[in-house]
Design brief:
mainly alpha; 434 Repressor (Amino-terminal Domain); 2 strands; 46% helix; globular
C-alpha cells in the first residue's frame, strides 16, 4: 500500500497457543450463550412467530441487514435495550416482556 510516497506495511496478528492459555482464565461477560441472551432471543422469535413477522420483515422495519437481525435472532449477539424497544414498538409488544422467563419457570433458589 502506498501513502505519501512511503510504503505502509500491514501487520497481521496471530494468536499463539501460549496467549490462548493465558486468556483461558478470563471471565467472559454476558454475551454469546448466556442464559439471558438466549431467553431474549427466544422471546423475540416467539413474538415474531405469533405475529407472522419474519427475520426479513424485522430487518426492513429496523433498517438493518438480515444478517444483523439473524445473529441476534439466534442469540449469537445480544439485543441492545434500545433495539428491543424498537422491536417492541414494531410488534406492538411491551419491550420489557422480552426479558421475561417463560411462564411456569422460576429462577433457581439457593
Amino acid at each position: 500500500m502506498q501513502h505519501a510516497g512511503k510504503t505502509a506495511r500491514i501487520f497481521t496478528f496471530r494468536l499463539t497457543d501460549r496467549y490462548r492459555e493465558d486468556m483461558s482464565n478470563v471471565i467472559s461477560l454476558p454475551g454469546r450463550g448466556s442464559e439471558l441472551v438466549e431467553r431474549v432471543a427466544s422471546n423475540v422469535r416467539a413474538e415474531c412467530a405469533r405475529r407472522g413477522v419474519t427475520q426479513s420483515d424485522l430487518a426492513v422495519a429496523l433498517g438493518w441487514s438480515v444478517s444483523a437481525v439473524n445473529v441476534r435472532w439466534h442469540g449469537r449477539r445480544q439485543w441492545q435495550l434500545e433495539d428491543l424497544e424498537k422491536v417492541g414498538q414494531i410488534l406492538r409488544f411491551p419491550a420489557e416482556l422480552f426479558l421475561a422467563r417463560p411462564e411456569g419457570l422460576e429462577p433457581p433458589t439457593f
